[in-house]
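Can you give me the bound-state structure? Components:
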Amino acid sequence: MASTQRTEIRFAGSGGQGLITGARILFKALALAGRQAAQSQSYEPTSRGGFCHSDLVVSDGEPDYPLVTGIDYLVVLDQVGADRSADVIGKETLVVADARLVPNPPAEANIRSLPLTDRALALGSHRVANIIALGALVGFTGICPKEALEQAVRAETPKKFADLNVAAVEEGFRLAEELAVA
Amino acid sequence: MSEQLTPLHGNHACALGAIAAGCRFFGGYPITPSSEIAERMSRELPKVGGVFIQMEDEIASMAAIIGASMGGTRSMTATSGPGFSLMQENLGYAAIAEVPCVIINVMRGGPSTGMPTRPAQGDILQARWGTHGDHPIIVLTPASVQEVYDETIRAFELAEKLRVPVVVMYDQIIAHLLEGVKMRDADAPLVERKWAGSEADYKPFATGDDLVPAMARPGDGHRVHTTGLTHNEAGFPTQHPETVDRVTRRLLDKLDRHRAEIEKFEAVDTDDADILVVTFGISARAARRAVRIARAEGIKAGLFRPLTMWPFPEEALRAAAKGAKAVLVPEMNAGQLSWQLERVLRDGTPIVSQGKIDGQPITPDEIVARLREIRGS
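Here's the bound-state model for the whole set.
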């Protein structure tokens, strides 16, 4: 029987930012923590560049309706992702946004604007901004244990980048803690 | 428990379900939004000694799986609306020649080329009556990735056991949804086709009480004539009125005889429901949530969901609708299931169609809004 407990999460931005990978890693981490999820993504003739999103509906059992209706957590890595998600976010939505690429985050939401891209570049590659965001999201929300996230990151990313990706998770947690202290 | 679940997309779960069910031949032509089934089968079949052929079109695809099945191999094809239309002619052949086969139809917006990447549920009457003439067919409509896996396996079991084509239909959303799936044990026993023994007076289309003829295994020495023409128990064409009536009725009665095992449905909170929601596939996932929200508001709603669309679980629906003051039918077409319910529920219960044909899925909120309207009226 489906559960009444339901959390909706969206990774939004433009194609190629690792949004689907990010959702896939969180899917795995949640499974390791004993929760079930349904992941859906945009399915259109155009895929490179432009608006792209990957959604997770998280539940204790099989989620009833597997598509998002009102997002609890939004990770947004590009302005287009914020603009095109306006219809499914509200005042309560926690938004983890990249400070550089999302200059105008949604006005009516709980915004955490973070230097995701800058920290990714400092770690050695802009490509891990999605993983830093994931670390920050889990740091803010505690939706799954940090260990589960790290295990999922190792399982779902190429071996030669595993250490870099786990470092990105750490960086994300650090950003969440810094903001909590400030 | 979750550790045992394998994350899979709907279309991949379909392919792996087919492999687990013993499918060893796929003939098909890729089409959005079903292409991942063909792609996955092209990778999986060689690993288990099976054969994958990309055919020139869907007419040939259907012909290929019929041929492979007559050769003794469990066979499948996968397509979407335009391809499903092309398959109808040979689907009729599979029905009358009683050739087990499985057809996956991932529904998209129609008619014609329609909207390749948008979900729809508009093929349910076509699946029943798309090929001409009275014929038996089984149609299954899973609503989750787990069910895509399980129902694909069940499709092979029913096809083999009853010598009938079985269609599995879901939509683009379920096709590309990622969910956890409990996989079947690799050594789970397979349902066997009913094969002929060495009897001297073997007739290819004679049956016992189960109304399923035994098939001659290729190479066993029996002489078999297979045709799409109406044929007698010996397999040869006939227009003799009494014979035609007898063999055609046996063909149709075959599924009635096995209804209990074919029919599958889900009933949620139907016992005391004032308003019964009847729907299937992705729309039923929305309805499941809508019923929960409505109940919290004090609206006594229930859900009836056929997993077997054809033959339709008529008795089960009547039982679920007993006591309901209204029936709401949300579906991603202009009212096909609703039309069917008008035939099954002949007791005057108002049937409200909530057909949506804009290429967008029906949401729980939309269904709740209609439930509120109905309660208010």
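A couple of observations. The first helix of chain B runs from residue 10 to 20. Chain B touches chain A at residues 1-3, 5, 7, 33, 116-117, 144-146, 172-173, 176-180, 282, 285-286, 288-289, 292, 361, 363-365 (CB under 8 Å).
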